[in-house]
Amino acid sequence: VPPGPAEAPTKAGAVPTAVGAAEGATGGAPTSPPPSSLGTPPHLRQPPITGGYGYGYHMEPPGGPPMSARPPPRPPTGPLSHAHTAPLGVNESGANTASEVDEDVLSVASVQSRLLLHLGFENPWRREAASERERAAEGRAACAGAGRGVLRSAGGDVAAARASEAKISSMRLRKQAVWHSTVKRHTQVARKVADLYHRDDIPCRAEGCASCRPFVEAEKVAHPLLLSSSLAPRTGASSVPSYLLLTPDAVLQGIDVLNDEAFHDIILLQTVLGMVRTASEATYRKLVDLVSDRDRRFVPFLNEFLIATAVEQPIGEGEARYKRRLIRSACAWLASHFAETLSHPVEVLVLLGEDDDCADDLKEALESVKNIRVETLRAFLESLPNGSALSDRLEEKSAMETSATDFSYPEHLSKREIREGVRSGRLRIGRFMGSRENYLEGFVLAEGAEEETGGAQGILVQGLMDLNRAISDDTVAIELYPEAEWRSESGWVEEDNALVLGEEEAETGGEEESVLVEEQGPEVAKVRLEGSTAKRRPTGRVVGIVQRKWREYCGVLEHDGTPNRNICLFRPAERRIPKIRVHSKHASELAGQKLMVSIDSWVRTSRYPSGHIVRSLGSIGDRKTENEVLLIEHDIPHSTFSSAVLECLPRMPWVITEEDRRVRWDLRDREICSVDPPGCTDIDDALHCRILDNGNVEVGVHIADVTHFIRPGTAIDQEAAMRGTTVYLVDNRIDMVPELLSSNLCSLLGKQERFAFSVLWEMKMEDAEVVSVKFGKSIISSRAALTYEAAQLRIDDASDQSELIRGLRRLNQLAKILKRKRLDAGALVLESSEVRFELDSVTREPLDVESKKMRETNSMVEEFMLLANSAVAQKIKDNFPLTAMLRKHPEPPQSNFEPVINAAKAQGFDLDPSSGKALASSLNLAVIPRQPYFNSLLRMLTTRSMMQAVYFAAGTDQDTRHYGLASEIYTHFTSPIRRGKGRMMKSWSPALEIYACIGADQRYPGMTDKDGVQKIANNLNYRHKMAQYAGRASVNLHTHLLFRGKTTAAEAYVFDLRRNAIQLSSVIVCFYEGGVRDVMFDEQDLVLRLPVSDGPQRPDDVSAGVSGCPDPAVFRYCLRLHFLAVSVFIPKYGLEERVMIPADLRESYVVDEVQRTVTIQGITLKCFQAIEVRISMDESNPNRMRLLVQLIEPNIPGLSVPTPPPEKRKESSEANGDSVATKKTRK
């Protein structure tokens, strides 16, 4: 609709010029209240929940006229209906003229939209254009300042709407003008005007409130979110039911207790939501999730837009004080409003945080207000039956961190200093990634530092002081050291308990006696640098934290059983995370539990961060508990699917309609079958091969058509986008989509009609040459769902001449030709250790483990999946050259191959990594007939030299080649049930793209958004990586469970020698008199130097290899030092573990770096040599059980251990009358 003569073009939610009633009320020219005084608008950083209630922002360029010289904006026209609503956190722009409109508008996040929807408003960005134009026309025709819902209640009649205008005379406009600085490329500063609309039609959202009922009914929502009218008293402190109202501090400190069932019917002020979001985005997201749970009734209240609760901000008033007055005004109004309008008695209970900034204001201002109480959140919790346990979950203030101590980290730079340092080029910003083996080491992936670092992928950070309280995944500011001070990776295996003297400080919270071995001057660093043969890397130090990425961590408490010990150290399961100090009155009860802990703060005078216990996960060692831990630690979404997701599922019984048959290929006559691992229920691919009349063959790959059931933008699509992939554990599967789809309707089950997307090739049988290829949607009926083993047996059975098996034989023959062509082109055949567990059918405990067997049928399926993925990749790349989702495998730098080249050279082989083809050829030649595992181990080492394969949008990188497959282009179109990349992800997928290419589906907006596709790719890369880590952790867990309580012997092979694998596994020094300073560890002489001051003279040197106490009155210590670790591979169990050589043998061995050997007391161990090892579980510390691998053969005195006696295998299932042989379960 074109704008009228007095109007400027507007967007939905913009502020148009006034027409109608505003002019009529004054008899001519439109009017508005004068602008308020200049000051910081509290709403610029926290936009409103609904733009219809809230703001229009106007931009002034730098140097523009002063705000006082500009005409005041006119109030909005028409009813502020749903066309003007905007989610929380969205800046909605409006302007008097088109040139004043801020273009950075309407950036909607799904979490914000969800909050809006739960408030009962529809999403304004999911409307047809026609509806937008209609609403815009209605808005311009209606009167200025009309209330939300008036036009609807008037039946759409404009005249009736104008007649209703007098009833909404309380609508008013307040204008605030401030300087709002924005850091841009040219350091421009823009001035923004915030127009704030105060209204009188905002409901309190209490069930039974007669005065607010019309406003709620006007929303036309079937089940509005309301506070319950049938409440019982919450505690014995009051006989009156209450609605809870939390201050920002209460939310920030108690977010982890709000999940308890005691917290329901809670009022969340708009001001509180804004302050929480400013303070902690993570806490805000948790709060939004609580609002999404309608049964809990966490109800937002728009206090800043209601006339009765809004307050003006005078000149010079600070932001904090203004917010406190807003909260105070809302509390007082709600209490009196409920007393007047509700028929049932109810009070407002305001909960404060510890040392709450709002405490004094609220208690003083509300002292005379009836129907309201104010108390602390901790006091409220202690009045509950389980309050003592809940109190432990409150965020701790820094009480534990205020004790006097000489220890101190370097002070972090301020945000301003960081910005100046980045601008000058002295500092870099990047993501810190901690080492998984050494908690005192990590890398910062800094953008734009390639020139200074010589192209290195990350900047090395080593040691406590250089890490400077950075935790893995934090965004940090880093300062690069001069090249002369660069270091090499340590190669050490270190844990947090290794390097601290005086851990007894945890008992009192003090750290006066804490001395750090790691950070004691340049001597240690110098020895480490000179003693290492590794290449030096760009090295730096963390000087500031840009953004914390703290999360909840799983682990155990270190509690020695001391009574009344409330302050303990929490040891995270992830080695990259430091210990966390927690306060708990129930520490002794939680000592045997796996816990979840959240970090609250980390001050520079504290050795460890401080946190609080969130919840207990279960007993240590329990399989279900340990599974829960590994899912949480690897960020695997594993909650049950929400009702919104389940509502997207088709109703059963599901039937194929005639329309479906009309638009799809009917391939039910083809001899199609699937070939998968045993126990597979999510079957997403099937194959067939038949002979054509011309002598060629038709080969078909059929992929489950998940897109038919999951459409873009739906709740199930968003859930699958968030999960990204199906996660396979040893004893469980975490589905990406609900089971009705993954194991039924989308699964290509045998003898069931299913929807598929089919790729059909015409090929020549003699050389597998592709004559033609076509793509299409289809209906198939699989003849059988075979396992790899069953398919192989039937192929090998010459008596089976069924058409289905003859087709499989043809496929197998073609697959061998296709594989040979790939290998000739330079494809690599690499290996990894994959195992298969045998589980008890009743207890699900592991009974045995074996390496996976590979058959020809495995290769057959793999070859045709590769062929299909390459064909689809080329098709979508031709049609979507910028946004096609592809998968690439970058070529590794030559330096990555140095370890495997040296290992091969020690055995007399020269590997050539100059190209993929050269590397493949040289690997094929590296064979030792009498050592069958040599080539496999060499290929495993080569695998570690590879780069990570990643998904990417085609327009973001010209290099699309997949190095490992020797393919010019590749994607993941197959496995759509278990991989998010195979289906739509927020309006994108290879499936949707290929459908659009062949005209089988429409083109969605996401298909042209290159940046949007790349964001999806980044999420897929992260989810895929974490799923792999979780799978490996599950294998490790079940391996530990398998060896718990027993000892066994196994054949192993020397895999690697780790020259600098020094491990200080326990150093504890308790000083009873005197002080300790400048503790140094002499790596060359293996001596721990402990100079003593302020006390009697003591021995200066303590030999690290001696076990004893030179002077028990001064200290006690226990030190184990391992100078060398021999990495071994155990094929039977697919394990790679270390055999540690103790320090007392340090004088009796010689390491040959060139030949990759170590000689101990005249006996030589070399890489790839066969040995025998003993495997057991070290259960001496229940909180830290670990797999212990010791050498049996060859027999080296002081190192080798005797062969364990044979042990009967546990067969608990046979006690129930079942045969163990039948209990095999798929990983």
TrEMBL record:
<dbReference type="Pfam" id="PF17849">
    <property type="entry name" value="OB_Dis3"/>
</dbReference>
<keyword id="KW-0269">Exonuclease</keyword>
<protein>
    <recommendedName>
        <fullName>Protein DIS3 homolog</fullName>
    </recommendedName>
</protein>
<dbReference type="GO" id="GO:0004519">
    <property type="term" value="F:endonuclease activity"/>
</dbReference>
<dbReference type="InterPro" id="IPR001900">
    <property type="entry name" value="RNase_II/R"/>
</dbReference>
<dbReference type="GO" id="GO:0016075">
    <property type="term" value="P:rRNA catabolic process"/>
</dbReference>
<dbReference type="GO" id="GO:0000175">
    <property type="term" value="F:3'-5'-RNA exonuclease activity"/>
</dbReference>
<dbReference type="InterPro" id="IPR041505">
    <property type="entry name" value="Dis3_CSD2"/>
</dbReference>
<dbReference type="InterPro" id="IPR050180">
    <property type="entry name" value="RNR_Ribonuclease"/>
</dbReference>
<feature type="region of interest" description="Disordered">
    <location>
        <begin position="1"/>
        <end position="98"/>
    </location>
</feature>
<keyword id="KW-0694">RNA-binding</keyword>
<dbReference type="GO" id="GO:0006364">
    <property type="term" value="P:rRNA processing"/>
</dbReference>
<dbReference type="InterPro" id="IPR033771">
    <property type="entry name" value="Rrp44_CSD1"/>
</dbReference>
<feature type="domain" description="RNB">
    <location>
        <begin position="664"/>
        <end position="991"/>
    </location>
</feature>
<keyword id="KW-0539">Nucleus</keyword>
<dbReference type="GO" id="GO:0000176">
    <property type="term" value="C:nuclear exosome (RNase complex)"/>
</dbReference>
<comment type="similarity">
    <text>Belongs to the RNR ribonuclease family.</text>
</comment>
<keyword id="KW-0540">Nuclease</keyword>
<dbReference type="Pfam" id="PF17216">
    <property type="entry name" value="Rrp44_CSD1"/>
</dbReference>
<keyword id="KW-0698">rRNA processing</keyword>
<feature type="region of interest" description="Disordered">
    <location>
        <begin position="1198"/>
        <end position="1227"/>
    </location>
</feature>
<dbReference type="InterPro" id="IPR012340">
    <property type="entry name" value="NA-bd_OB-fold"/>
</dbReference>
<dbReference type="Pfam" id="PF00773">
    <property type="entry name" value="RNB"/>
</dbReference>
<dbReference type="GO" id="GO:0003723">
    <property type="term" value="F:RNA binding"/>
</dbReference>
<keyword id="KW-0378">Hydrolase</keyword>
<keyword id="KW-0271">Exosome</keyword>
<feature type="compositionally biased region" description="Pro residues">
    <location>
        <begin position="62"/>
        <end position="78"/>
    </location>
</feature>
<dbReference type="GO" id="GO:0000177">
    <property type="term" value="C:cytoplasmic exosome (RNase complex)"/>
</dbReference>
<feature type="compositionally biased region" description="Low complexity">
    <location>
        <begin position="12"/>
        <end position="30"/>
    </location>
</feature>
<dbReference type="GO" id="GO:0071031">
    <property type="term" value="P:nuclear mRNA surveillance of mRNA 3'-end processing"/>
</dbReference>
